[in-house]
Amino acid sequence: MPETGSLTTSMDKQFEKLFAMMAEMKAGQEEMRVAQAGLEQKMETGQQRLEQEMRSGQEEIKSQIQAHTESHVEEMKTHVDECIGKIEEEVQCVKLKIEKVKSELVQNSYLPDRQSNPTFNGQTSWTVFKTQFDIVSSTNGWTDFVKASQLVASLRGSAAEVLQGIPADKLTDLTTVEKALESRFGDSHLKQFYRTELKTRRQKPGESLQELAANVERLISLAYAECPLDVRES
Description:
This is Retrotransposon gag domain-containing protein. This protein is an all-alpha fold and 234 residues long. It is 78% helix and 0% strand. The protein has 2 domains: 110 residues; 106 residues, no CATH class. The termini are far apart.
């Protein structure tokens, strides 16, 4: 019996140790379960925080992209508006030029035809020629420079010889050329000649009375050019 009691006591101790180990293991498992639950909670919290940070980052990036896009679009719009404005200005400028050309064409269509330049050889009346020349130059709208050039080009024969006495740099000066021709061929120097011819003028053989009257009238206008027309006719 003592051996049995001793064995029982030994087994009880073994069971106690076993129960103690089981209790310790159970406590360890519970501790591990709590620790695991805490870890899972931390992981879940961390994941949620990470997701929130990612969402915030995405929203920030999206906002930055949108702001940059809007700014770029606004810059492009401003640039396009400036280009359109420049194009409109150029178009308006072209329109004005076209209108100016049209206006000039319309004005030119109403201008009288260019008159041919008369010629002067010194054998006819300088006053008559100058009157014709002034009318032609006025009709053609010549400046004094062009008028002087055309006057020089219209001279023939003895009238052209007058140019030899004019300096080359004065040939385009209208006043100088006209004074030289007036001095040489002016009617004031021929009045006495015309008056003498008028006094001695007779009807030529084969000349009609109309021709004689026209010639006499011409001589009267040359000989008495300073007199009014009504005085000459009387």
